[in-house]
Automatic annotation (TrEMBL):
Its cofactor is Mg(2+). Gene3D superfamilies: Divalent-metal-dependent TIM barrel enzymes. The gene is xylA. Signal peptide: none annotated. The keyword Transmembrane does not apply. SUPFAM superfamilies: Xylose isomerase-like. PANTHER family: PTHR48408, XYLOSE ISOMERASE. Belongs to the xylose isomerase family. This is Xylose isomerase. Its main location: cytoplasm. Keywords: Carbohydrate metabolism, Cytoplasm, Isomerase, Magnesium, Metal-binding, Xylose metabolism. It is found in: Cytoplasm. Homotetramer. The active site is at H97, D100.
Length: 431
């Protein structure tokens, strides 16, 4: 145990409390026949919560954490503090990259030994804790060896190193009974075509993913394999730009039934989409797996990874998730970090508490909209014309047959209002 959080008590649901408390998130509240905790499946991100030093593109470390360092003792202290936070928040899940939890060794064998020791520690702690593993992943982007990518690297030695790293992390995720394994391709893309063989890199990436899927089945891992789309930053042209791009990639390599997506709100915005667009598209394509819940600063051009605080945005996201039947084995991972001026331990707790409340409010609003058919009734009315026999017949006819009644003067369309403002007003009644 550490004394990092001092005398902070576990956070409870108490709408009337003056201090740290959940005002909207009651894990046992039933919504649409399911406990709120089981809907939301909250997870703490190990990297931003415990490994991020508080830097930005123009300045370095602002956080002074007692576990910062390259020694195993520091990694063990970090784990102690992490599990204390999980307990304070009562979250059911957490997530990690390998580089978050262990110091880098002088060789692959040393790094793996460090990693295995922390996984041993996690396994021991998880036997006595509520928290479980939502997903594990490998950091294949921070170290200089990955400056030109991992699975897409022009150097086959880096490709092999990446394979060994993913194998190690997938083994550990399986050992800890993780619900998912995520492939986050932070540098799977290119800076310039002047030195890039685009076709070769995409083929290598497809083959790499196929190997991961094969290995999952070989070891009996029952969790989902997920790709996290991201359009840019740090790589200028990412091969996993957005949900649509990822789906096309999966189809090309015959993996659309084996791999789903972990969608982040901030990445959706960077791709020029809304979060709900990416969620709805993934639902319709059958590849919705899990979500990273954060937000970007709309005045900044990079991925600011802030904790969510916008209930209407969150409500529209969970609306699409509930329409999909929920998150299944996925969850709501807070891939979010404190502002670099938020130095105190209580800031880390308060950020998660506020975000969990925002998500609870959003999900409950989304559930009420669905239960009341507030949006689905007008949506069905807008497409009601397609229910007629004549309209259905068009879907099986050829082009000339469909065009014939128009050419004969029998059809003259009249525009019909989309009523967007009315629908926006309906949403606002719920949030």
């Amino acid at each position: 145990m550490s004394d990092f959080f001092g005398d902070l008590a576990p956070v409870r649901f108490d709408p009337e409390a003056e201090g740290l408390a959940f005002r909207h998130y009651d894990p046992d509240e039933t919504v649409m026949g399911k406990r709120l905790e089981d809907h939301l499946r909250f997870a703490v991100a190990y990297w931003h919560s415990f490994a991020w030093p508080g830097g930005d593109p123009f300045g370095g470390q602002t956080f002074d954490r007692p576990w910062f360092g390259d020694e195993m003792a520091a990694a063990r202290l970090k784990a102690d503090v992490a599990f204390e936070l999980f307990d304070l928040l009562g979250v059911p899940y957490f997530c990690w990259h390998d580089a978050d939890i262990r110091p880098e060794g002088a060789s692959f064998a040393e790094s793996r030994s460090n990693f295995d020791a922390i996984i041993d520690l996690f396994e021991e702690k998880m036997e006595h804790a509520k928290v479980k593993l939502l997903w594990g992943t490998a950091n294949l982007f921070s170290h200089r060896r990955f400056m030109s990518g991992a699975a897409t690297n022009p150097d086959p030695d880096v490709y092999a190193w990446s394979a060994a790293t993913v194998k190690t992390c997938l083994d550990a995720t399986h050992r800890l009974k993780g619900q998912n394994y995520v492939l986050w391709g932070g540098r799977e893309g290119y800076e310039t075509l002047l030195n890039t063989d685009l076709g070769q890199e995409m083929e290598r990436m497809g083959r790499f993913l196929s190997m991961v899927v094969d290995y999952k089945h070989k070891i009996g891992f029952e969790g989902q394999i997920l790709i996290e789309p991201k359009p840019q930053e740090p790589t200028k042209h990412q091969y996993d730009y957005d949900v649509a791009t990822v789906y096309g990639f999966l189809q090309r390599f015959g993996l659309e039934k084996d791999v789903k997506v972990n969608i982040e709100q901030g990445h959706a915005i960077l791709a020029g989409h809304s979060f709900e667009h990416e969620l709805a598209l993934a639902r319709e394509l059958g590849i919705l797996g899990s979500i990273d819940m954060n937000r970007n600063d709309y005045q900044s051009g990079w991925d600011t990874d802030q904790f969510p605080n916008n209930v209407p945005e969150v409500a529209l996201a969970y609306y699409e998730i509930l329409k999909a039947g929920g998150l299944g084995r996925g969850g709501t991972n807070f891939d979010a970090k404190l502002r670099r001026q938020s130095l105190d331990p209580v800031d880390l707790v308060a950020a998660h508490v506020g975000a969990m409340d925002v998500c609870a409010r959003g999900l409950k609003a989304a559930a009420r909209m669905l239960e009341d058919d507030a949006l689905e009734t007008p949506r069905r009315a807008r497409y009601a014309g397609w229910e007629s026999a004549a309209a259905q017949a068009m879907l099986g006819a050829d082009l000339a047959t469909v065009a014939a009644p128009v050419e004969a003067g029998e059809i003259t369309p009249e525009p019909i209002s989309g009523r967007q403002e009315i629908l926006e007003n309906i949403v606002n009644r719920y949030v």
